[in-house]
Each structure stands twice: as C-alpha cells, then as structure tokens.
Amino acid sequence: MAVATLLPHYETADVRIEKVVVGPFENNVFVVRSKGTGDAVLVDAANEHELLLEVSRHTGVRRVLTTHGHFDHIQAVTQMRDAGIDVGIAAEDAAMLPSYDFVIPDDDVIEVGDLRLRTIHTPGHTPGSTCFLLEGHPVVFSGDTLFPGGPGNTSFENASFDQIIESIDRRLFTLPGGTLVLPGHGLDTTIASESPHLDEWIERGW
Fold first, then answer.
1. What pLDDT score does 140 carry?
2. Do the strands 15-22 and 189-190 form a parallel or antiparallel pair, or are they unpaired?
3. How far apart are the first and last CA of the chain?
C-alpha cells in the first residue's frame, strides 16, 4: 500500500488516525496525528519496517508506543530506533523488546502535540499490556487485550485469563459505551458492543 493512499480511520477537526495492516499476522498499526501541530505517534511497530518508516516520514512520527511485547507487535522496533524514532513500552514487558528508549507507566499522559493519550495498564495477555485512550475522543487502542467477541489469547507463558478479565472489566468497561475500540488485529468494536458479554467469556473460559 502506498503511503499516499492512506485513508483516515478516524478523523475530527483536531486528530487524524490512520490504520496500516502489516505482516503475516495482519497486525493493525495506527498513526495518531495532531492536525493542529503535526505531531504524530505510531501504535505498535509490528512489521514491514520499510513501509512503517515511509509512513513515519510522511506523517511526522517521532515515537512508537508499544501495546505489549509479543514478537508479532515488535518486528520493526530495531529499524525504527535506528532511524531515530523513540520506542516506549511498559516496564513489565520491556525485556521482551530487543531495545527501547522509554518506559510507559500506568495512568500517565503522553502528549502528541495538543492531543493527550492516557495510558491504561491492562495485564493479562502479557504482564505489561497497555491500552491508550485518546482523551476528549471516544477512542481506545486496545492492543491484544480486547477484540470483537472477547479478550486476547491467554495461553501464553506469563498470561492470565483471570487477570485479563479483571483488566477489561475494571479498566476498559468503565469507559463510555460509545468508545471505539481499535484492537491489535482485525476489526473495530465498541465498549457497548462487548461489555454485555463479559459473563459469557468468563463461563467459556477464553
């Protein structure tokens, strides 16, 4: 996909979010750009580093925010850092990266020009899984914590089904129902579409 054909996935007067799907696991990569200042960040340097570097040059990306440390979400990290783009991740997942520049704490604010991304620690899929809420907008980037139809996979080492359910219930389902959920793979959903099904997920156990 040529960068010139990137279409807005979500757009208002002050923000433009673009989505790029990369790699064999069809990872969603999101560019969050302030229309007021031109500042931008990339959510997950997942794969296809040449494309992501081109996207970053085109959109002004200077930082990468990593939702978690699984290999399919970090394949382009080294090349992004080599190009001078800083990469951040939660401390609990930092050892899963080949290298990084800053640690992302829970309940912190990451400024992107005049935009504000609130960090939400949601352990379960990995110990350091982190979602990013775009303050003032009904948008949350959920990584592999929440998808249409349920939580992310917890069959991995250091994953926990009970913990991901608690994270979703206490940290995400407290958001307004109209909040758009942009996951690390696949289609968007909303908090209102998913929250009625929590007990079903607990009963089925995945």
1. 98
2. unpaired
3. 34
Q: Which two tokens stand for residue 18?
A: 């673009």
Distance CA 12, CA 28 (A): 21
Other CB atoms within 10 Å distance of the CB of residue 135: 11
CA distance 6 to 11: 13
Tell me how far CA of residue 25 lies from CA of 21, 128, 186, in angstroms.
9, 21, 10
Host H or E run for residue 198: helix 198-204
Question: What pLDDT does residue 7 have?
Answer: 86
145 with 152: CB under 8 angstroms?
A: yes
Tell me the domains of the chain and their CATH numbers. Answer: 3-201 (3.60.15.10)
Beta strands in the chain (DSSP E): 8-11, 15-22, 27-34, 40-43, 61-65, 86-89, 102-103, 109-112, 115-121, 130-134, 139-143, 146-147, 150-151, 180-183, 189-190
> In this predicted structure, what is the pLDDT of residue 13?
97
DSSP secondary structure letter of residue 51: H
Q: What is the pLDDT of residue 6?
A: 83
Task: Collect the ranges in the chain with pLDDT lower than 50.
Answer: none
C-alpha gyration radius of the chain: 16
Neighbour count for residue 99 (Cβ, 10 Å) = 10
User: Any residues with CB less than 8 A from the CB of 68 and at least 6 apart, and which?
Assistant: 89, 90, 93, 96, 125, 126, 128, 129, 130, 143, 144
